[in-house]
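User: Can you model how zinc ion sits in this protein?
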Amino acid sequence: MCVEVAADDGTRVLLDLGMPLYDANHNDYPFGTPQRPTAELLASGVLCDIPGLYASDQTAPNYAAIVVTHSHLDHYGLAHHAHSAVPVYASRGTLAIFEVSKIFFPSAVLPADVRLLPDDESLRFGALTVTGIPVDHSAPDARALLVEGDGQKLIYSGDLRAHGRTGFRFEKLLADQRLRGADWLLLESTTLGAGGDSHGLRSEQEVEEALVALATGGPDKAVVVVASGQNLDRLVSCYRAAKRTGRKLVVDPYQAFVLQKLAPLSENIPQFTWDDVRVSFTHHQVEKLKAAGLMELAHEMGRAARVSTYALGAHAGSYLLCARGSWRTTQLLNRIGAANAELVWSMWGGYWNRDNCAVRIWAERAGVQAHFIHSGGHAWPADLERLMEALSARETIWVHTDRSADADDSEGQTALP
Ligand SMILES: [Zn+2]
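Assistant: Here's the modeled complex, given as structure tokens:
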């Protein structure tokens, strides 16, 4: 996603500058594409040709700022190609995720000059005013953006939904007087295609209930939930399901660090210092903390919450683990023992079907049937309709979808993650 807003006084602001989800043929881009040189990405059309935006332009930058809605790659993943004199603004939670990514993913592509998009005041750039409005999404602390200028008003929804743990934010949007009388509403519409069903269960609460049912049904087995380490709602659902079934939540140091950095957002975010949270260490993650000068934090995690893989296997039924979709998770599953684990795929189903999905390949070899327990980050069509009606902007423009504008309801479209 990338939206440009310009005012009559020449002020220009970008809302998001994301990495496209796939190419014109619906194929994934090769791993490492965002890290390719700017000129190469411009030539291949991955980057839009936007004069005055890139460092390679040789001219003074023509943009006052890039305001990022949330920490998903398709919204910020190309922002580092912009001229370093163009500041990038994001919410506190998004900045926290950037900080963690910098430590754990050395190849992460992050803008150099990131600044806080404040919660309680608008940003002013020439004739344009940008206000961040908190929304519910699978990335923590996501924002919709209200842009005002030249007597006009534009709302960009970013990615949002009504069915997560902060669904109340969606209901607040419906009643937000600041958003009334907009000229344009750019509304994400990921689920509008026929593939909308691929976004799983109807709500995050249903995810929690399904995990509780699974953890109750297989009392002697560890429940291993493979999810995005940055999906805060899912980590909380795992914690709640663990607690309700008398288990300990097990996270890795990366997830423990994410939870610690996001702690200021809510007192309900589980922390490794809590009695019912454990940390399973992997050597490479400790090395990353060490390289970042955070060895004391690693020691602190170890003292407060360390659990050995031996203990995970020996007392499998005492734990609900949150893991990630990498080959390292398959090592962990081997240590616990395939017969001692209920495997849960808790991400978009499309990722499971990818050729290089290490967890699927492991499950097929081990003869393990995975449970699919997930709810997507995007609003259901009925909620989009509610939002559109409540805001009644002069014009609504559907974005973040591959459903064509003239598609009728019977036409199949491919889902977005
Ligand atoms: Zn998103």
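A couple of observations from the model: The pocket of zinc ion is lined by residues 70, 72, 137, 139, 159, 377 (CB under 6 Å). The radius of gyration is 22 Å.
User: Helpful, thanks.
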